[in-house]
Amino acid sequence: MRPTRPGVLVGLIVVVALITWVLVRQFYADLPLVPWTAIPTVLLLGIGEAYTAWMTRARIARKPGTKPAEPLAVARLAALGKASAYGGAVFAGVFAGFALHTVQLFTRETPRSEFFVSLGSFLSCVALIVAALFLEHACRIPKDPEDQRPA
Q1: Residue 23 burial class via C-beta count within 10 angstroms: exposed 0-12, middle 13-18, buried 19 and up
Q2: Contact indicator for 124, 46 with CB cutoff of 8 Å
Q3: Residue 65's Cα: distance from chain center in Å?
Q4: How many Å apart are CA 105 and CA 29, to the nearest integer?
Q5: CB 6 within 8 A of CB 85
Q6: Considering the entire predicted model, what is its pTM?
Q7: How do residues 71-87 score in pLDDT, each as one tens digit?
Q8: Per-residue DSSP letter, 146
Q9: Cβ neighbours of residue 149 under 8 Å, at least 6 residues apart?
């Protein structure tokens, strides 16, 4: 499995945001309000993944007071990090598309509140992406000290 490249995630966010912006522009009146509950939910997921990454990195480095990490569990965590990064990028794009449309209607009360909810949701998705990339990085196999000696 190759590490996730942040450039791919940024491209995914931009493409999904543009698609969402076009769709929201045409169907905005028919859509329900953007739920504010996405903000704490995604933030809690990001905090959980960041803590898991921190603990996994300590276990892989065999720091005192930690149990050794099982290779299969670490592989599963790496897959979780990769999936969370891509899922967070897609949802960040959706919320960015909503924010792009509602910022144009900022003088009205409902679109203004939807802008702030969309912006907060976008930022929480970015926090999830950062935590997922940290989890993926923490699951890497450390280099052997013998391989790092100068030749």
Answers
A1: middle
A2: yes
A3: 30
A4: 12
A5: no
A6: 0.88
A7: 899 999 999 999 999 99
A8: T
A9: none
